[in-house]
């Protein structure tokens, strides 16, 4: 027996030193333990001796298990002299064996784990149950020894209610196996005892047989754990290894316990009723695409999410616009509008000046009513040159006062300008090289402004015109001749658009 105990002790120590450790939650696990060590009743003549035991426990929480424990041991120790009421200490020698004291206890109670999340666990335990002892004679077929007291024989064996308290530690070599040690004290009470009153009680007390009042035991503990590991979210991955411990019920998970979402829509496989949703689509709680405007293109993928009901749409969910006017066919009341036309909300061309040529295609927007226009929307009876020298426009000498002849000429020009309200012009004033430069600059600027002011009196928008005096800087003719100098004193209209 000693060799067996030494073997298992050495094996446990080697495993303790050489094997990596694990923290382990015992919740939902069935633990099966083997205990071996020593026990004593701390009474003469009984010796310290070997003990064996077993334990079955069930983890109801990581901090608490319920355990049923049983221990058994026997000792040599002494003899009861014939007719006496006291034991005498006598060692085994000369072939004579002393009596054996046999002890057992079976108890149930809680095990309180103090460090359930560490690789080593320290625990305390309490319990209650039944225990017993007997004194047997190995020289007489291991029969129970009898003691005689006051003329009555009493068999030296008993059973009693017990209370237990203890503590221990365990070290996990792997998640399913731990080694450790524990000490416990089992208190024998008078309940259920045959020696609790009368002469039997007197025989058992300390002045006579001094029978055991308790049992102290301690030793090594080897425990194997069976059952599934704790899995709080029921995803099949143990809490200890679960990197996503709050996975919703029904989700498929990977080896880390995290939900798998094959189509990337935010709803895990297993709960996703539409597992092949396009990645761009927004989905409901069931993982199915949402189509708010009911056009057959999912929200998120739909670039035109407010398409009116009944409209035909393209792959982007936008209404088909055959004539490219910006109004979907389903809303377009003028489906064949030219591509250059500006249109209203109904898709029909806008013609602001009412000349029959739609805005956008009209190169002369704002044409006055009643004027005939060409295909470009420009008047056919009037033209505006890019550059026009107003030869008939003359001023009183050395002033910027228009002559009556000049005004009549400008009246005809104003009619053309009125036909082209979109055209902007620079009105340029020029002089020859005669006279002082500063005067020529002033004269040319004021003459240009005088023309602009006259056009405004004829109803033309002043914002269409810019008056600019250039003095003698831009001659068109030869300033060395009288004729050339006359021609250089001029007003020009330069078209800006």
What would your notes on this structure say?
With 497 residues, this protein is an alpha+beta fold. Among the domains are: 2-226, Porin; 387-495, OmpA-like domain (60s Ribosomal Protein L30, Chain: A), CATH 3.30.1330.60. 14% of the residues lie in helices and 29% in strands. The chain is built from 5 helices and 17 strands. Strand 7 (120-137) and strand 8 form a beta hairpin. The protein is rod-shaped and about 175 Å long.
Our count of helices gives 5
What distance lies between the first and last C-alpha atoms, to the nearest angstrom?
118 Å
Structural class: alpha+beta
CATH class of the domain at 2-226: Mainly Beta
Report the C-alpha radius of gyration, rounded: 58 Å
Number of strands: 17
CATH topology of the domain at 2-226: Porin
Share of helical residues: 10-25%
CATH architecture of the domain at 2-226: Beta Barrel
Q: Beta-strand percentage? A: 25-35%
What's the overall geometry?
rod-shaped
| Major pleated sheet | 8 strands, antiparallel, barrel
The topology string of helices and strands comes to HEEEEEEEEEEEEHEEHEHEHE
Question: Average pLDDT, to the nearest integer?
Answer: 86
Low-confidence stretches: 3-8, 10-23
| Adjacency order of strands in the biggest sheet | 1-2-3-6-7-11-12-13
């Amino acid at each position: 027996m000693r060799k067996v105990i030494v073997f298992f002790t050495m094996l446990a120590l080697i495993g303790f030193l050489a094997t990596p450790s694990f923290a382990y939650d015992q919740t939902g696990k069935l633990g099966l333990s083997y205990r071996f060590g020593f026990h004593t009743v701390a009474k003469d003549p009984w010796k310290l001796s070997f003990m064996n035991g077993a334990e079955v426990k069930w983890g109801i929480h990581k901090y608490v298990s319920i355990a049923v424990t049983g221990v058994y041991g026997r000792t040599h120790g002494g003899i009861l002299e014939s007719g006496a009421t006291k034991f005498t200490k006598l060692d085994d020698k000369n072939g004579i064996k002393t009596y054996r004291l046999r002890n057992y206890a079976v108890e149930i109670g809680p095990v309180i784990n103090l460090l359930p999340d560490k690789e080593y666990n320290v625990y305390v335990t309490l319990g209650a149950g039944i225990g017993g002892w007997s004194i047997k004679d190995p020289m007489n077929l291991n029969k129970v020894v009898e003691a005689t007291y006051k003329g009555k024989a009493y068999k030296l064996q008993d059973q009693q209610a017990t209370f237990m308290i203890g503590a221990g530690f365990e070290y996990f070599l792997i998640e399913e196996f731990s080694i450790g040690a524990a000490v416990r004290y089992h208190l024998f009470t008078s309940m259920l005892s045959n020696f609790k009153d009368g002469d039997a009680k007197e025989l058992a007390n300390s002045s006579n047989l001094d029978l055991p009042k308790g049992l102290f035991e301690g030793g090594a503990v080897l425990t194997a754990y069976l059952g599934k590991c704790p899995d709080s979210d029921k995803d099949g991955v143990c809490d200890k290894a679960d990197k996503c411990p709050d996975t919703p019920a029904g989700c498929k998970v990977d080896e880390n316990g995290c939900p798998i979402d094959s189509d990337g829509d935010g709803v895990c496989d297993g709960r996703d009723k539409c597992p092949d949703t396009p990645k761009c689509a927004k989905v409901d709680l069931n993982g199915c695409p949402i189509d708010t405007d009911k056009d057959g293109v999912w929200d998120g993928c739909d670039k035109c999410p407010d398409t009116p009901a009944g409209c035909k749409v393209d792959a982007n969910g936008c209404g088909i616009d055959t004539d490219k006017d910006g109004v979907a066919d389903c809303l377009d009341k003028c489906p064949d509008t030219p591509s250059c036309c500006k249109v209203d909300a109904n898709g029909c061309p806008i013609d602001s000046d009412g000349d029959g040529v739609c805005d956008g295609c009209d190169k002369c927007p704002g044409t006055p009513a009643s004027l005939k226009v060409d295909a470009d929307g420009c008047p056919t009876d009037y033209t505006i040159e890019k550059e026009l020298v107003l030869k008939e426009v003359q001023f009183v000498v050395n002033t910027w006062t228009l002559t009556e002849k000049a005004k009549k000429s400008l009246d005809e020009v104003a009619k053309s300008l009125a036909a082209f309200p979109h055209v902007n012009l620079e009105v340029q004033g020029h002089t020859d090289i005669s006279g002082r430069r500063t005067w020529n600059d002033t004269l040319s600027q004021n003459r240009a402004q005088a023309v602009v002011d006259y056009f405004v009196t004829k109803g033309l928008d002043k914002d269409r015109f810019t008056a600019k005096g250039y003095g003698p800087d831009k001659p068109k003719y030869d300033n060395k001749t009288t004729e050339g100098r006359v021609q250089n004193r001029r007003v020009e209209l330069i078209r800006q658009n």
